[in-house]
Write a structure and sequence with these properties.
Helices cover 23% and strands 28% of the residues. The chain has 377 residues and is of the alpha+beta class. Keywords: Dioxygenase, Iron, Metal-binding, Oxidoreductase.
Length: 377
Amino acid sequence: MTRHALDVSDDGRILTLSGSEGPLRFHAVWLRDNAQDEETRAPGNGQRLIALRDIPEDTRIEAAEQADDTLRLTFAPEGKTIAFDTGWLARHAYDRADDRAPGWTAPVVETWDSALMNAAPTGDFGEVSADPAARRDWLAQIARLGFARLTGGPVEDGALFKVVDLFGHVRETNYGRKFEVRTEVNPTNLAYTGLGLQAHTDNPYRDPVPTVQVLYCLESSAAGGENMVVDGFAVAQRLRDENPEWFDVLSRHCARFEYAGGDGVCLRSRRPMIELAPDGELIGVRFNNRSAAAITDVPFDDMPTYYAAYRRMGEIIDDPAMEVTFRLDPGEAFVVNNTRVLHARKGYSGSGTRWLQGCYADMDGLRSTLAVLEAGR
């Protein structure tokens, strides 16, 4: 039990809780809006049963009392008394100094570089499929680090769908539910050649972009072709630390991306290479030189700075100190958060075979599954 000192402002508009977390202030209208009683929230799913218009504009706290970890507040003019858990209030407190620099990341995010090489997150397909705790731990690594491998899977056409079934649903695109990654004659996409590819995010020309990519190995006897991942958030923060102006210009102005490689397909998007939320949180990276269109949304005077920043971002991405490299054998896969982690492939020879299948899914499904597993539901 955590005991808090309570103080209600004279006009009833602000409640202050003083405890081990320090003084935390809450507005009366916020508290009333976040009431958890059955008349405000549906017991089964937690969705609100009232709209903000149903809460009086002059809502204020008329009385406050605490018993153990429960805080009971009476709101005027409704005359309604609602119980709050003080631990819940402490976890959802918004009274904090906003001293975060642009490019900050959420607490769940852990950035990384090549030092992760010998500790790359990995799960066993059988264990992750059968054991909820193993699945939770594997998904938590993707949420924290932006990628994870999976080993010991079946070697069969379409096995990657079983990976997606562990956390969500396939997002079908113009490439179909899945696409093949192997050498082709006159390919429509450079991914289907034996060339090495610069680390990139996939499908930056889509809006919204697929937020999860799965690549699953079925054959791998060709020399080379190792997979590589780079933490785009670590890249962006390194650029910011080296030159804040360059970070700013890439996050403030939109790049353009385009793909028109097949009949009836012309995909275009306009988004910054470094995407920030309005409060400066780093929420996305889009980088794909192959799909970059003419950049036309940068003012004339800023274009030289933009290109200098763009060049430097590419150099940081190419720095071996930023990459984690591994080879996929048949029955192995890796999953990446496509809004954060760039992936690449080393070049491989024409002898032997190399066949991977890929598909897309989304992080909302992954985070939902993880939240359910963490809650033990």
